[in-house]
Design brief:
By secondary structure, this protein is an alpha+beta fold. It folds into 2 domains: 7-176, 3-Layer(aba) Sandwich (Rossmann fold); 183-273, Elongation Factor Tu (Ef-tu), domain 3 (Beta Barrel), CATH 2.40.30. 17% of the residues lie in helices and 29% in strands. It has helices at residues 20-31, 49-59, 107-110, 146-159, 258-262, and strands at 7-12, 36-41, 68-72, 83-87, 92-96, 118-121, 127-130, 173-176, 183-184, 190-197, 203-208, 218-221, 224-227, 229-230, 240-243, 248-252, 269-273. Strands 9, 10, 11, 12, 13, 14, 15, 16 and 17 form a 9-stranded mixed β-sheet that branches. A 6-stranded mixed β-sheet has the order 2-1-3-5-4-7, with helices on both faces. Helix 1 (20-31) packs parallel to helix 4 (146-159). The longest helix is centred in the middle third of the chain and has 14 residues, at 146-159.
């Protein structure tokens, strides 16, 4: 008997009001009807590559080894940017070469001097190929829907056991985002930003819990100061700083939405200071 059906996860900015997600799933299932499709999310903000990488990084480690993770947030679809498949010891990642596959990379590889994406060399044990073999594309290929015609089909063929090398030439460097980690300032404070806003209106930042100076730290956001860091979303002040389940600091409004209260958007600055 064979093993369990392969798992393919999907992370996109497609939303659910249009046929795009269904079309991509249909393309995958046409190739491998036994695939188990898991939606990480389709509510990434349009073209928010960093948010997509952050959300996928928070989700994929909890899947069984061998899962295939497809991330399609692709502002430059149809341009010369590369389409990639990346394999680690535990998982395979498929998506555009724009930084979204940073979810698969360790921090040490992604370290950069600034805030912009940069080309990085892959560490030992990581293999990447450029998806160029049209045999594994859906035909014809739309110039504006590579999720359906390239990335989805590639994931489906990978789930059937097609060797990574069959899809195209090996790649030594890919585009990577800087690590999801707030910068330490000369005065000792941490300066971070909001990378994700969840369905509850919680502001998920790039400030790692392990980097907090203490539980009594002061968190500054949108001209508000929050005293102390909590470990739960219990009732209390209008705003509360919370240690989130993914290891990052969150700003919450117990019983409400911090995003609505602060009129917050992705990228909002958050500063942590010693009490």
């Amino acid at each position: 008997m064979g093993g369990p059906p392969p798992i393919i996860t999907l992370t996109t900015d497609f939303g659910l009001q249009d046929p795009y997600v269904a079309a991509m799933k249909g393309a995958i299932l046409t190739i491998n009807s036994n695939a188990r499709l898991v939606d990480v999310t389709h509510a990434i903000r349009p073209q928010a590559v960093q948010q997509a990488a952050f959300v996928l990084a928070a989700a994929w480690p909890y899947f069984p080894p061998g899962a295939i993770h497809v991330a399609v947030v692709d502002p430059a679809v149809g341009s010369p940017r590369r389409a990639l498949a990346l394999r680690t010891d535990t998982a395979t990642f498929v998506g555009p070469d724009n930084g979204v596959l940073s979810a698969a990379l360790p921090d040490g590889v992604r370290a950069t001097a600034g805030d912009s994406p940069s080309l990085v060399r892959l560490p030992a044990g990581y293999r990447v190929v450029s998806l160029t073999n049209e045999r594994y594309f859906r035909s014809p290929v739309s110039s504006t829907f590579h999720g359906r015609d390239i990335f989805g089909p590639a994931a489906a063929h990978l789930s059937l056991g097609v060797a990574l090398e069959e899809f195209g030439e090996p790649v030594e460097q890919i585009v990577a985002l800087p690590p999801f980690r707030a910068r330490r300032q000369p005065d000792g404070s941490l300066r971070g930003r909001v990378l994700h806003i969840d369905a509850f209106g919680n502001l998920v930042t790039d400030i790692r819990v392990e980097d907090l100076p203490s539980r009594n730290a002061v968190v500054e956001v949108a001209d508000r100061a929050v005293q102390g860091v909590s470990t739960a979303y219990e009732p209390g002040p209008a705003l509360r700083a919370v240690t989130g389940s993914s290891g990052f600091l969150e700003i919450a409004a117990p019983g409400g939405s911090a995003a609505a209260l602060l009129k917050a958007e992705l990228g909002l600055t958050v500063v942590v200071r010693r009490a």
